[in-house]
Amino acid sequence: GQHLLGLRGMSAEEITSILDRAAYWENYPEKVAKVLNGKFVANLFFENSTRTRTSFEIAEKRLGTEVINFSAAESSVQKGESIYDTVRTVESMGIDAAVIRLKPIGLLAEMANKIKVPLINAGDGNNEHPTQALLDLYTMRKHFGHIKGLTVSIVGDIQHSRVARSNLWALQAMGAQVRLCAPENMRAKELEAFAPYVTIEEALRSDVVMMLRVQLERHDQGMIRSAEEYRAQYGMTVERAAKMAPHAIIMHPAPVNRNVEIDDELVEHPKSHIFAQMSHGVPIRMAVVERALHN
Ligand code: CP
Question: For L-aspartate, which residues are the binding ones (predicted)?
Fold first, then answer.
């Protein structure tokens, strides 16, 4: 089995093979394939989740695995047990792979050296969220037929976004042109060497405009003081969406703050692929779980 810790450094060939396998699963005629009967997969969530946790569980069940769901809030983590000791505990019971979401950056890579079963990153701090980016790339490839040559602008709270980082690495590996757009206090300085920051007007001139969830609670000291001000300066408003090219699409990993980073009317608009992204999470995670458990 193979860990999936992140997409930084992953080749275009490997990304393509995961997307191709997801396409196989998206078009698979049966709901349950049972190809991984007898395997046990644990979903270990030390941070909250709706989409990632649920779609991993559906993916695992569609592959025929036995699923163990663990949420830190109901566990001995509340008695002070560490993340490492928790993962080691579940491993000792005989699981075959673990899907993990956690906050501390670097801990997953550290654990990957000590834990023998494959670990799949379901989001680690602001570092990476590889399955989210894979489902985003899958959505783009399905819509445009290719990823190479696309211009993709990622707009919003780049600094806190593992989604932005995983997309940046994977999109660049696949030959897309990535641009970032954020208010000064939401920029990640270390990414400036990899992608330019552009204005919101420039970001609208892209094939894909990917909006990020704003975590306003973390920015009360900054330049953006309210949801209204954020929407006015950086939100995907109906007016801004009308300036996008007819072929261009809007994406968002969700959860969405309606009328903050994206207007309510746009969430389910034909230009928006937000619910398609969520639906693609299942075949992508089937491909990723299968990859982890093979060999
Ligand atoms: N997009 C995403 O990761 O959503 P959840 O936090 O609900 O899993």
Answer: 79, 162, 213
